[in-house]
Structures are given as structure tokens and as C-alpha cells.
From TrEMBL:
Signal peptide from the UniProt entry: 1-22
Domain of life: Bacteria
Species of origin: Herbiconiux oxytropis
Keywords: Signal
Start and end residues of each stretch annotated as Disordered: 25-103
Protein name in UniProt: Uncharacterized protein
Amino acid sequence: MASTLAALTAAALLGVVLMVNPGGTGQRDRTASAEPAGPADAVDAAELESVEPPDTSELAEEYLTPEEAPGAWSSDTSAFPEPLPRGRSWPEVPPSVLTTEGEVSEDGLSQVMAAYHWMCAWEDEAVTAAAGKDPARAAEAVAQLEKFTGLPGIVDNLQNSDSWVEHVLVPAREGEFVEMEDEFEGPTCDGYRETEASR
């Protein structure tokens, strides 16, 4: 169950990343055709020159470039509506999915990534407290995690939120943290764990 949930979560995150080819021309590659070029395939150079390039100005406003990511991340984390656990702080460097050269991400992904970082921080707190036999601290963490599905960037983007509540949050409310620990140790929180390990 945990692996299915992790796969759904990863798919939801990765689904908002768009791969681009900075060196691409956008023209059709005719060299791959199995048929020899004939009169029907001949292209008039003057005709090609007269083709207007598509207007991408509106698209540019909908996507976040790697150069814009640090500013978006700083803005989203400084204005985040809920606190991190005591002793934790937001990483200054945005997640690598936002800064990978040759990729752009949908505007708003920074906010989604901030919410997942927050969630992983509180899951870390809950799992650590449960393992340390500190039920009060674990309960505080679970109370924070109750807010996850209503966070900015999550409320409109997280599919299967009911499944997450049912399989991760509900057992934790009852003192069972196996599913939450599995999620925390899985791909959903890879970025959070790497960030914390590097501090």
C-alpha cells in the first residue's frame, strides 16, 4: 500500500515538470524517412522563411525557469502559512527539480515542493517521536499533519488526498506509524532527507 501511495505521489509531482530541448529547432526531421525524397517532399526555402514562429510569450508566464526558481522558492517558503518543527529551517537552495538545466516547471511547483518539504519535516518529527516513546510530541506532529491537504499548492493539486488521509494519517492518529514511516523513507521525502543529511 505504501509503495502504491508513494508512486501516486511521485507521479503527481513529476507530472508538472516539462522537459525542453534548448537546442531544438522545432522543425520536423525528414532524414528519418524510409522513402526517398520526391517532388512532394521538396520544401521551398522562401516558404520556410515566410512561416511565422509561434508566440510563446503567454507560455513563458506559465512556467518557471531554473534561473527564476531561487526567487520563487524564497518567496514561497518565507510566506509559508504553517511552522516547521522546532529546530528545523527552510533550505536556502530550492529542490533540484526546480533548478535542473534544460528543464522548466509549471508556475506553482515551488509552492507544491515547499508543502511537501513541510509534510516530510512533520512526518520525520512524528516518526522520531514515536520511536522514542514520546506520545505527546508524536501527537503534536500528527496535529500539524492534519493541515497538509489544505495547504497552498496542495489543496488544488494533490490527487488521492483521501487515500493519503486513510492510509497514512488515520493510523497515525491511532498511534500506528508504520505507514507514515514507509512513506517518509520512500521517494516522496527523498529531497527532504538529502537536504537534512547535507546540513
